[in-house]
Amino acid sequence: MQNRNELILIVEDDSQIRNFICYSLKQEGFSYITAGTAQGALTTLVTEQVDLMLLDLGLPDFDGMEVIKKVREWSEMPIIVVSARDQDKEKASALDNGADDYLTKPFSSMELMARIRVAIRHLQKSGGARLQTTLGVGGLKIDLDKRLVYLEDSELHTTPLEYSLLSLFFRNIGKVLTTNYIIKEIYGAGYGSDTQALRKLMAGLRRKIEKNPAKPRYILTEIGVGYRLSDV
Amino acid sequence: MRSLKYKDSKEIIRYILITVIIIAAATGIGWIFLMIGFPETNIVIVYLLSILITARFTRGYTYGLVAAVVATFTFNYFFTDPYYTFSVSDPAYFITFGIMTITAIITSTLTSKVKQNALESQEKEAETSALFHLTNRLTDAADIADIAGITTETISGIMNCRAACLCFDESGQPEQSFIQQLNSNEQVRRKVDDTAEVKHQIESLRSGYSIGSEFYDWPIYGRESILGILRIPKEHAVSMGESQKRLLRSMIESTALAMDRFRSARQQQESREETIQERYRSNLLRAISHDLRTPLSGIMGTSEILMDMTEPQDPRYDLAEGIHKDADWLHSLVENILSLTRLQDGRLTITKQLEAAEEVVGGAVGHILKRHPEYEITVDVPEEVLLVPMDAKLIEQVLINLLDNAIKHTPPSGEIKITVSQENSFATFSVADSGCGIAISDLPNIFQMFYTTHTGKADSQRSVGLGLPICEAIIKAHEGTIEGHNRTDQMGAEFIFTLPKEENNHAKPE
C-alpha cells in the first residue's frame, strides 16, 4: 500500500455507498473526508485543502449541480460526479458546469479508482501541461507545435477539423467532453446543437485511428453525454 | 278501421248541420230585414257573413263552397222578384248573383286557408314543445335504459299508443329485453324472441322503418352504430299521418343524440380513469425502481470489496461473488423496468436524434465487456458511417439486453457477433450467438411479457422474461421491427432488429 498525500472529499448521502468508497480509497492509500449534504460539503471545502471531490448529484438538501457551480467560482479541483443511469441530461449539464468526469451507479470500486487516478494524474501534470507540446495516448501522438498526428510512429494525415477535434481531446485526456461543448469548440458558438456533422466527423476520424470504429480504443463514446479520449 | 270511418261520417253530419243552420239563420235575418224594409244589399251582406262563419266552423274548402252556392240560390228563392221561385224577372239580378257567388267562394277559401295555417302552426308548436319536453327530460337521464324509458313514455303519451324501445349494447348487439309502455305511468320489460333476427332486419333496412308482426321498428342511429330500435304498435303505426311520422323521426333523433352523448361521456370517463391508474402505477414502479438503485449500488460495491478482501479459494469469496451476481441481476431488472415505464408513460414520446449506429453498438459492447471481460464480441459495421434517428439510450438498452441473452447462452469461448448493415431505407442490427439456440416451442413466445422457457434445459440463471418484451416495446416505439430465430448455418440464436432511416411523419422540406 503506497501512501499518497491527496485529500479526497466524498459527498454522498447513502452510508453504505460511502463506506465502501472509503474502504476502497483507504486501500489505495488516499486520505479522505466525507459529507452527507451539499451544505456539509461546502463547509468542508472552505476549511480543508481538498484535492478532489467525488459528488453524488442527488443530495438531500440541495442539488449537487449547485455545489459544482459554487466550487468552480474559486477552484479548479477535479470533480467526479456520481449519478443514476437515466439522468443523461443532468450528467451533461454537470459536465458543462465544470465537472471533470462522471460515474454511473452502480459502479465498481475498480472503475472508481481508475477514474480517480486519471484525475489525480491530471492534477499533477497540469502545472507543466501548458508547456508540453507533444502528447500521447498509446500509439496515438500529437505534436501541438507542428500540428502533426502520429499513429504507431508514422505520420497520420488529418483534415483541419479532424486535427482540431483531436487536439481538443488531447488537451482534455481522460475527461468526458459533452457533445455540446465539442460542437461549440470545433464549429463555434453560433453553430447550434445539430449533432449530425459531429457524428460524421467522429466516424471519419475513427476510421483513421481505430482498428474497428465500433470497438474504439482511443475515443470512447459516452452515449447520451459525449466523448472521452481514453487514458489507458 | 271501422271506428275511424264512423268518426268521419259523424263529423260530416255535424258540419252539414252547421252549414244548414247558419244559412237558415241568415235567411231568417234577411226575412226580418225585408219586413222592416231594408234594401236587398244588406241581405246579400248577411249571406256573405254567413258563408264566412260557415267556412270558419267547418273543415276544408267543401262546406264553404257549398254554402256559397246554396246561399245564392236561397237569396234568389226568397228575396228576388218573383218571390218563392228560382226564376228571375230583372236580368240585373244575375250580376248580383254572380258577384255574390264569387265573393262568397273567395271568402270561404281564404277563411279555410287561414284556418288551415293556424292548424298547421298549432301542430308545429305542439311538435316543438313535445320535442323540447323530451330533450329536457333526456338531459336528466341516468343511463341508457333511463333514456329509453323516457323516450318510450313521451312518445306513448304523444302518439297515444303503447310504444316500446329496444336498446343495443356497446358492442352493437340488441339487448335481451325491451321496454314497453303499459299505461300512462307503467312500463314493462319484454323478452326479445330472436335478437339476431331483429339485428339482421334493422341492418338490412332500406326504408325508414321495418314492418314486423307486432311492431313497426324505427332504428335509432348513433354516430357510429345503431343504438337501438323504437317500436310503434302495428295498428297505430298504420294510421300515422305524415306529420306524426315527422315528429316521431325528430324524437328518435333527439334520443339518438342523448344516447350518443351519454356513451361518449362514459367512455371519456373510463379512459380518464384508466390513464390516471396507468400513470399512478408506472409512477409507483418508477419510484420503487429508482429507490432500489442506491441500495443496489451499496450492495454491489460492498460485495466487490469483500471479494477483494478474500482469496479466490476461500469459500467466503464464492459467497460474496454470489451476492454480487444477484445484485447485478437485480440491477439490470431495475434498469429494464425503468425503460419500460418510460416507454409506457403516455407523456414520453421518444426523442429521436440522428446517431451513428457504430457508436451505439460500441457503447453497448463496452458496457457488456466491462461486466463480462472473459467474452469476445465481434462487431461488424459498414464502411460508410450509418446515421439513424433513434433514442440512443433506449437502443443501447436493446443491444445490452440482446447481448446479455447471448452471453447467458454462450460459453466464453463461443462466438458472439453484432452486424450492422443497411437495407434500402432501414438500418439492420443483428446479434448472433453460438449457444444452444431457442427451443422450437419457445419461439412464438419469446417476446411475451414474463415468459420464461419451460424446457428442461432451463438453466440456474433466473429470468423474469422482461428483457425481450422491452426490446420489442422500444423497437416498436421507433417504428422498427424485431425478430428472433435460430441460426441456419450453425448452432445458436440470432436476433435481428431494424430501424427506419428516415422519419416517416415529417420528411425534410428540401
UniProtKB/TrEMBL annotation, chain A:
Q: In the UniProt record, does the keyword Amino-acid biosynthesis occur?
A: no
Query: What is the official name of this protein in its record?
Result: Stage 0 sporulation protein A homolog
Classification via Pfam families: Response_reg, Trans_reg_C
User: Which PANTHER family does its entry note?
Assistant: KDP OPERON TRANSCRIPTIONAL REGULATORY PROTEIN KDPE, REGULATOR OF RPOS
Q: Respond yes or no to whether keyword Ligase is given for this record.
A: no
Q: What does this protein do?
A: May play the central regulatory role in sporulation. It may be an element of the effector pathway responsible for the activation of sporulation genes in response to nutritional stress. Spo0A may act in concert with spo0H (a sigma factor) to control the expression of some genes that are critical to the sporulation process.
Q: Name all Response regulatory domain ranges.
A: 7-120
List the source organism: Lacrimispora defluvii
Q: Which InterPro entries match?
A: CheY-like_superfamily, OmpR/PhoB-type_DNA-bd, Sig_transdc_resp-reg_receiver, WalR-like, WH-like_DNA-bd_sf
Q: Give the keywords, sorted.
A: DNA-binding, Phosphoprotein, Transcription, Transcription regulation
Q: Where is the OmpR/PhoB-type domain?
A: 132-231
PTM sites of type 4-aspartylphosphate:
D56
Q: Indicate the residues that the entry says bind DNA.
A: 132-231
From TrEMBL, chain B:
Per the record, what are the reactions this protein catalyses? ATP + protein L-histidine = ADP + protein N-phospho-L-histidine
Q: Which residues are in coiled coils?
A: none
Source species, domain of life: Bacteria
The answer on whether this UniProt entry bears the keyword Ribonucleoprotein reads: no
Which UniProt keywords are listed?
A: ATP-binding, Kinase, Membrane, Nucleotide-binding, Phosphoprotein, Transferase, Transmembrane, Transmembrane helix, Two-component regulatory system
Which SUPFAM superfamilies does this chain map to?
A: ATPase domain of HSP90 chaperone/DNA topoisomerase II/histidine kinase (SSF55874), Homodimeric domain of signal transducing histidine kinase (SSF47384)
The protein depicted here goes by the name histidine kinase
CDD domains cross-referenced by the UniProt entry:
HATPase (cd00075), HisKA (cd00082)
Among InterPro entries, the record links this protein to:
GAF-like_dom_sf, HATPase_C_sf, HATPase_dom, His_kinase_dom, HisK_dim/P_dom, HisK_dim/P_sf, Histidine_kinase_KdpD, KdpD_sf
